[in-house]
Design a protein that fits this description.
- The protein has a single domain (3-13, 23-295), classed as Rossmann fold (3-Layer(aba) Sandwich).
- 38% of the residues lie in helices and 16% in strands.
- It is built from ten helices and eight strands.
- An eight-stranded mixed sheet has the order 1-2-4-3-5-6-7-8, sandwiched between helices.
- The chain is globular, with a radius of gyration of 17 Å.
Length: 300
């Protein structure tokens, strides 16, 4: 355990922010600045591309590549973030697995509220299938809101009659727009990033008046996960969204889905982004890469 590393990251994330609510552009700029500090492996290359009708970032290993594709959904509360801000995560998964990744630049709220993000991620998955990728060679992965999208895109694909991917990896996923998890309150003091007020504000931008009590918005509470592929959920104890993960894992288990709930003590939301700075981040990414290589097949 890296007690000093965890303390340094916690202190960094708790640095005072400007008082008062920030504008959407200020939130987006602040997140870009934070994520620009993350370490991206030098063994990957990136190429702008298009997937479905949205821009995307293709991330590939510079060395030998294995057959397999990670369809990645970035975090940011459905309001901020981009494939570039998630590059430490996609880059590390690519470097560790040898697979390629396609990171989707889905539309953001408040300009494009629910269900725009899911429409875009489902369109990206269709594009991979239409391009000749077998579902057994594809895994969904994402962090925070994108971790939620990895789950809800599976729901949308199943409802659309599409074959499901080989696996799902979710880092600190946001899975409950009803905000009814007990950790929303019990872990607030421990969480160095989020408060209930903050996530409810961005959540309202995404909902735009939609009822949160529906599976595509609150799968941890309402989704039927029958038929899902194997799922890996990684989460830290120092986050208010902890119960999003624990409740989804319970629902998956009840539905007969192979699920791994991987909880790391005393680390913050999407701690995997701190690879190279936090030992637990590198160890978690190693576990995620092993899970992916175990389930993604080289051919149908």
């Amino acid at each position: 355990m890296s007690k000093s590393q965890r303390a340094e990251i916690d202190a960094m994330l708790r640095r005072p922010q400007p008082e008062g609510p920030r504008s959407v552009e200020e939130i987006r700029a602040g997140f870009r600045a934070l994520m620009a500090r993350m370490i991206v492996p030098d063994t990957v290359r990136t190429t702008p591309t298009t997937l479905g009708d949205r821009p995307a970032l293709r991330v590939e290993p510079t060395g030998g590549r294995r057959a397999g594709t990670i369809l990645y959904f970035h975090g940011g509360g459905f309001v901020f973030g981009s494939p570039e801000t998630a590059l430490s995560l996609t880059g590390n998964l690519v470097a560790r697995t040898g697979f390629e990744a396609h990171s989707v630049d889905y539309r953001l709220a408040p300009e494009h509220p629910f269900p725009a993000a899911i429409d875009d991620t489902l369109s990206a998955y269709r594009a991979l299938l239409d391009g000749g990728h077998a579902p057994s060679t594809i895994a969904f992965a994402g962090d925070s809101a994108g971790g939620g999208l990895a789950v809800t895109t599976c729901l949308a694909a199943r409802d659309a009659g599409l074959p499901l991917p080989a696996a799902v990896v979710a880092f600190s996923p946001g899975l409950d727009a009803t905000r009814t998890g007990g950790s929303m309150d019990t872990r607030e003091a421990a969480d160095p990033i989020f408060t209930r007020r903050a996530v409810e504000r961005t959540g309202a931008m995404y909902l735009a008046g939609a009822d949160p009590y529906q599976p595509l918005l609150s799968p941890a509470v309402l989704a039927d996960l029958t038929g899902f592929p194997p799922v890996l959920i990684q989460v830290g104890t120092n986050e208010i969204l902890l119960d999003d993960s624990t409740r989804l894992a319970a629902r998956a288990r009840s539905a007969g889905v192979d699920v791994i709930l991987d909880v790391t003590a005393d680390v913050p939301h999407v701690f995997q982004a701190f690879a190279g700075l936090l030992d637990e981040a590198d160890e978690a990414l190693d576990r995620a890469a092993l899970f992916l290589t175990q389930h993604v097949r080289e051919k149908a």
